[in-house]
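Changelog-adjacent note: as of this version, every example in the card shows the full chain rather than a window. The one below runs 221 residues end to end.
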Amino acid sequence: MDANRLAFRQWKLVPRMLRPTTHRDLTIELFGEKYENPILMAPIGVQYNPFSTRTQKQGSQKSVQKLASHIELETGLDSPDPVFGKNFKENFNAEPEDKITEASAEWIGDVFSGAVHSWGKIALLKKHWDGPIVLKGIRRQLDGAVGSLDMLPEIVEAVGNKLTVIFDSGIRTGVDIIKALSLGAKAVFVGKPAIYGLAVAGKQGAKQVLQGILADVDQSM
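Full-length structure tokens:
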């Protein structure tokens, strides 16, 4: 996280004054669909929410899941790790939140399974899936790694028009988004800020955080 935030601080904007700014177009086209702005909700995996049952009874579970993706996917695709929960229930005849100790042990074995992944598995996935594939890199476990924003221009140049680049890592402000887009990203994922808002004030809190970031983008432009 420190490397990501440092990268954003090191890249500077050069203001252009006395330019017409009355028309600001934030729309983007992604996978053949047009969207009003380039802000997407980052997938946040393996969350434990002791209030999920109550939330679902109150009828807001669908709203929370929809909030988990700016592009409206099927609800099941937005939920946190449904496969793990299903397998755990089959093996232990209980929900993960009802047996925290056992679920924690199972989760560690599931995440740190020792399985080796390679680019060859992406080819296998493409062979059996003709739709778009969004491949999200996760390398926060490696201390001392280069900031994601520092690598963005190099990645954009390498893939050219063969791939759609969506930036994710360290987005906190509207100016951060402008920097990522200026360096070649087609859209950006926002994760922790929205989740912080969700933790403080539920659906409305997450909504206000995203609205604030979007307003910052528009105002900065």
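Structural remarks: Confidence is low (pLDDT under 50) at residues 53-80.
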